[in-house]
Amino acid sequence: MTNCHSIRPLLPARAEELTVFEARTRAEHVAACSRCATESAAYSRLGQALSVMANLEIEPAHGTLERVLVAIGRRRTGVTDPRVLAAAGSAGALVATVVVARAVRARRGRPLDRRQSRPGVRHMALPRRLRLPNVPVPAPALARAK
Amino acid sequence: MEVDRELVEAAQAGDRWALEELVRRTHRSVYTCALRLVGNPDDAADVTQDVYLRVVRKLGGFRHEASFSTWLNRVTTNVAMSTLKRRTRRFAVEGAAVPTDTRDPAPDPAERAEAVALARRLERLVGELPEGQRQVLVLRDIYGQSTEEVANAMGLTPGAVKVRLFRARERLKADLEAAEGGQVVALAGRRRATGRRS
After folding, report:
1. Distances in whole angstroms, Cα of residue A139 to Cα of each of A100, A146, B84, B144
2. B95: pLDDT confidence band, cut at 50, 70 and 90?
3. B8-22, B35-49, B51-65, B178-192: which range is least confident on average?
4. For chain B, does the N or the C end have fewer beta carbons within 10 angstroms?
5. pLDDT tens-digit series, residues A8-46
6. Residue B173 is nearest to which of A42, A58, A61, comparing CB atoms?
7. Which of residues 65-104 of B touch A (CB under 8 A)?
């Protein structure tokens, strides 16, 4: 028979956590050793009580439910289908691309600087600030939530 | 926590009432799981709110492959773990309300009552475990997640989960025996005192 010391690490384990060999070794030892049988029974009782705990609920502090309902009411868009969300994302990306493309085209099409038009004087083209057309920019979701 | 499939589907279709009803039916269970994982009532309330915000975002992708409660438990676990990574260590479960049983009555009411009474005593003892051991025990032994799931949620190896689980169970059994031994001693002392007076 295996000694108690080598069986001890197997006692708290559930049956499905052990290999077939470990399960058999434990069962044989527990059948012959009253001390380890008591330990094993205590772990079984503990395991059962812990699984019961999944069905015990603690009442949250007053106002928690209301807080959650307000938060999801604020955040909810009514659209939950991922395909619709993906289509909306693609449309947004397309709009952003068009806006940037128009801005770049407008910048290239602008007449040269007065300094550059003077004969004999060459100026290096300086990077100008990108001017975007006056299109409303969609607010990020986080800012909207705030 | 049992949730009708019809209710979940209605919430997925954008029915506002169904979504709110879903929250009403499940929020205690989510809060309880969050409290057991984060160990602090304020953080648990924050986690509960974040869980439902994530549920609103992800509900459309829920395909009923697992039960809704299993899915909700996973979402709660992930949100709670993210919260724990962010926050500093604060831990105080004391003062938590006494848990109430929501399961249908078992065939043997006496056995069931004994298990529920023991589970209520355990609630406090589980809360007193070191954080890492407590989380592993809560996910594995209370909510029945697999060792691999627990390892993924906590960013540990399955071996590390097993070690923590072994220590948690060993310590919890010892704590329970000490608590029950203390109760027996206290009861015997009270009986002796009553006997002397009479």
Report:
1. 17, 11, 30, 42
2. very low
3. B178-192
4. C
5. 999 999 988 999 999 999 999 999 999 999 999 999 989
6. A42
7. 96-103
- Chain A touched by B170 (CB under 8 Å): yes
Angle formed by the axes of helices A34-53 and A20-32, nearest 10°: 120
Q: How far apart are CA A121 and CA B130, in angstroms?
A: 77
In whole angstroms, give the CA distance from residue A77 to residue A144: 12
B130 to chain A, any CB pair closer than 8 A? The answer is: no
What is this model's ipTM? 0.76
Residue B31's identity, in one-letter code, is Y
Question: Could you tell me where the DSSP H helices lie in B96-146?
Answer: 109-127, 131-137
pLDDT band for position A1 (cuts 50, 70, 90): low
Tokens of B181: 């031994």
Other beta carbons within 10 angstroms of residue B131's beta carbon come to 13
pLDDT score, position B92: 45
Question: Distance between CA atoms of B147 and B162, rounded to whole angstroms?
Answer: 7
Nearest Cα to B19, choosing from B55, B62, B64?
B55
What are B65's two structure tokens? 């492959």
